[in-house]
Amino acid sequence: MLSALLALGVLGILFGLLLGYAAVRYKVEGDPLVEKIDAILPQTQCGQCGYPGCRPYATAIANDEADINRCPPGGETVIVSLADLLGRDPKPLDEECGEEKPKMVAYIHEEICIGCTLCIQACPVDSILGAAKQMHTIIESECTGCELCVAPCPVDCIDMVPVRQSLDTWKWPAPPPPPYEQAADGSSNPQPAGAH
Amino acid sequence: MTLQTPPSPHIHSGIHVSSLMLRVIAALIPAIICYTWFFGWGLIINSAIAMLTALASEALMLKLRKRPLKPFLGDGSAVLSALLLALCIPPLAPWWITVLGVAFALIVGKHLYGGLGYNPFNPAMVGYVMLLISFPLEMTRWMPPFILEQLEIGFIDTLGVIFFNHLPYGLSIDALSSATPLDAMKTDLGQNNTVSEITANNALFGDFAGTGWEWVGTWLLLGGMYLIYKRVISWQIPLAVIGSLFVISAFFFLMDPDTYPSPLFHIFGGATILAAFFIATDPVSASTTPKGRILYGIGIGIIIYVIRAWGSYPDAVAFAVLLMNMAAPTIDYYTQPRVYGHARGKD
Amino acid sequence: MRRLFQFKGGVVLKEHKKDATALPVQPARLPPRLILPLKQHIGNPAEPVVAEGDKVLKGQLIARAGDAICAPLHASSSGTVIAITDQPVPHASGMSAPCIVIDTDGEERWRPREHHVDNFAELSAQELRGIIHDAGIVGLGGAGFPAAVKLDPGGRPVDTLILNGAECEPYITCDEMLLREHALEVLNGLLMMRHALHAKRCVIGIENNKPKAFRALCEAVRHSDADVEVVEVPTIYPAGSEKQLIQVLTGKEVPSGGLPLDIGIVCHNVGTAYAVYRAVELDQPLISRYVTIAGSVAHARNLEVLIGTPLGDLIEECGGNRDTLHRLIVGGPMMGTAMHSDVVPVVKGTNCVLVESTSHDVPLPSRDAYAMPCIRCGNCADACPANLLPQQMYWYARARDFDKIQDYNLFDCIECGCCDYVCPSQIPLVGYYRYAKSEIWNQEAEKRQADLARERHQFRDFRLEREKKERAERHKKKRSAVTQGGSDDKKAAIQAAMERVRAKKSEQDSTPKNTDNLTPAQQKAINDADQRREEKTATSPPDRPQ
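ok -> structure tokens follow
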């Protein structure tokens, strides 16, 4: 009895030392987790997650302060990638943050715009060109579709429109699954209706 | 008029799952006739029971899984599994053995895993192993091949035996059952007889691998060659199974011909040929890479020999196939072919 | 005799090449309208140099190359430019792209000749490439890479120039007819290409199902005493694919993700060689090409077609019925693209128009619409000439696991369709690979965009921070100036300045921070805008220029 206790105790101490040594020896430098999470996030900078941008949200996830399902622009893809990265179970998008939609870009109706610069101040990625009392316009290729410019506009001249499709951005659709699988899964691949 | 815009290619060879399955079934027919010649109507009746059960189980499961009957019931895969299982069941086994085995094979072995294309194990072998373990007595009562020369056991008589356990001519069940050559060999070797002593005075062992069995094996071999020629199955698996079994059995045979039977006996006795060409090549559960198929086949050959020579079962085809089924995904993963334009040595 | 090698896999297909080779090639009827897409090649679109209403001559430059990887465009016939707009182009999407539309005048008047080359061997490689580039020549085998770029080895040695006359797809016979009728010209074009590349050797590969073309080429080589090897290769699809032809002729493999040039090989299509000959010797830019019209037409044949001719015109000319079209394929049945409409034009890379109509017997045995589950038979892997595992890629494409599918080397897939052709479950495998590839490209583009957004966001944060600091700095300075500044007149000056600012501010507030305290002028602007918007939304939904 005593010898057993002794043996177990010694073993416990040995393994404890080993673990302690490993923790010191293989300590991970810095906090690459935030970087990794940030790399997965879509960088829309829309704040729908409740944090002022993608990086703060990434930091919050890394610190276990936020859940992984709060990014509507990233949608399921981002949730699954985050779950993979963090070894958690994927879960459906948090509804209070918003819903997943196909990517849109902002479009300013230039004949209505009064040049108030409010949208310029709201844009998180500086993708609106213009100056005071000058008409504003969106640099479409740099717009993340965050919608942050829509609300501040006093004359409601900003609309979110689908991304312009061209031969270069056209994607081959997934072949439709056979009818028997559609019936069984109750789902088919929804294709976002693109503008032509 | 709206034009159809499917992705390329716009033509197809016309090969269909059902045409593959039908070719395999066709390749089995000569062997089935030969089998009937030696062992009577049992196989035909069992096959009919098996096929009906297979179609019924398949239909039931498709209904339960809310899949349409139309493409799946006609794909021939259930019928083929049923035929393969019927070939493994003793010809005079009672009807419920066949029904149970086939139903288990299709319901548990196939549909519970997701149906056609998703079963990790060969359904026929799953059914067979279940029967062998649950009903060892019924599953080892084989017909002596020469009995038909002495007694006329017709179609009706066979039906009587299978369905009502009604034995003709007032025979006892023992008179109608015997061991397979493999079984007999194993038992006799266990009693310290030499191979030549065992085969010398026993008509059961035929010319080289057992009366009847050797000819069934030959026809299966021819059917298998036809399938390779028609590219329904690949050559790697049959060659690897038979080749590895040949090499290993030849090795032991040359070491000690008294304790270890000849390679020919191993290859044509039992279900080796059936396994090599028709069971191990079941595409769903086998390896799919060229190198993988060879490893997979060699694995089956070795396991067959090991169990036959040193295990407690006389034949081991089903176990060998199921064991290698388990290994197939791993084998596939490690035997990916070198892709065009990639340096040799790495992937 | 050259030792030939084998590529792995491949399939033997029914050729269907007899019909369209019975009649000699003749020019197609001049269409009333030509539609010339600005982008008929890999690279950026050409830039128009004509305007609506301009009269153009046959062969006249109508769009110039903007950068290095681009090909200029020429009027295929004389006439009037009636529009430069988006028109449906031959693309799988069925979408429209910018095109120059020309109404022909039927006179076929050529532009004046611009150069005379008496002996191309006296030109430098650079000059020769210049002529080829200016003629708008792109690879005529289908991919459409600008030929001049592909003829510039960039200082790297070229051991073998391979001319691809294999033409392995069923139905297509335009290269075969070209070789039968213009072997000498093709050979001359090849020698010009060789001159541009300084290639050591020249090999022409032809599938052994075209004995007449082979004989014509051998005859031409003997006649001109050129040091060119003409080799027959076995007829196995896809022997005409660049990578596979290189493997058959040399035994070498093009490295994954690399170019044939990496192993000292350049490969061109026979049609390209012919176009080079015409450009150099005859000063004719690429404005026409041989096109096979086959399938459900009364007279399957090859025509010399002006670039920009709508497909419907060709179908009518060959006795096809445009009203009963069921499928219209540009290219061959294995790799061609199904069109959404028959108004799309022939472009530089169009080698074949394959017609399937409901009024004829359906000539193309298609895949079932109803795919069965994969049974892992491995037929696809056996048929794959790239030695891939198509069934694995199929699983991952279906599961949208785009990392895993790249581990299985998706991007080495040449989309030849062999796997699809032999699949007993009739799964549209190539459709899945195309889908996966375009999803991956899209993800990469999104990634690039996300990186850009991150950068810009970080810069904005930095800018705001800097501005805040600067403002604080200014305030501090000002305050210290106010408190420490001794003299009264200085204080008075500051006071006056602040008064002025305040007055100005109340006069017009140029930067409203919110809408609560608006100036009347602003309020009016807002009201005006509101009204305009209301009128607008009442009449039509918000639109945008397309």
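The first strand of chain A starts at residue 104 and ends at 108.
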